[in-house]
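Review form for a predicted model. The reviewer records the input and the model, then writes brief findings.
Reviewer: anonymous (R2)
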Amino acid sequence: MKSLLISCCISILLYSCKPIDNNLLVHEIIDTSINVSGVDKIANSTLSFKFRDKNYFAVRNNGMFELSRVFTKNNDTINDILSNSGFKRIKNSKPLKIQDSMAIKFSESVNSVHYFSILPYGLNDKAVQKKLLGETKIKGDNYYKIQITFSKENGGVDYDDIFIYWIRRENFKIGYIAYLFNTNGGGMRFREVRKEHIIAGISFVDYNNYKPKNSNIKLENLDKIFEKGELEKISEINLKDIKIIFN
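Model under review:
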């Protein structure tokens, strides 16, 4: 009931007037999206899920975190762990010494899957910079279009990545995401939410994953290209066996 009341109040504010403070408006949109998606509960929890051939685990407790993935490679069990204290790889229960460049690569890979798995959680982190680009329609639905960038300080190794979120005006849930990344050769992706799972009151989603056929397209225009059917679907992002325990 509280969530509904907050959502309704903010909806009235957003519909009824043009705000003077753009930063305040975008902050309210993100806050409401986090609230209605239930992901605020993630802050103190133990989460597990399966993505493709790997098992993922996340333990969060008042700002402390341990994000991991476990998989089998050449009959060896590999456990990659990213935490407040850094990254480590464990092979068959024994710590494995790896080069710094590889540690960064593995950290990015672990962090990326965990980041997308619980959106919009994390969009109020200290390094996040928000900008409302306006409103738009996709497939007949109205969306707030929000750009997310990161400050270099506290922004991690991927601080120069750029994201755009389309948050549905009707229910404040994410419908689409586009992002520009620079690692592994760089590129752009566009994700479409195709299925929602409600687990313990939290919204987890699966995506269709697209890329532009033309690399000269601007990130902020990917929604228009998507509507024209000119993006190439390259994969599906499906979370399986989702389990969560609150600490």
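Findings: The radius of gyration is 19 Å.
Further findings: Residues 44-116 form one domain.
Recommendation: see findings above.
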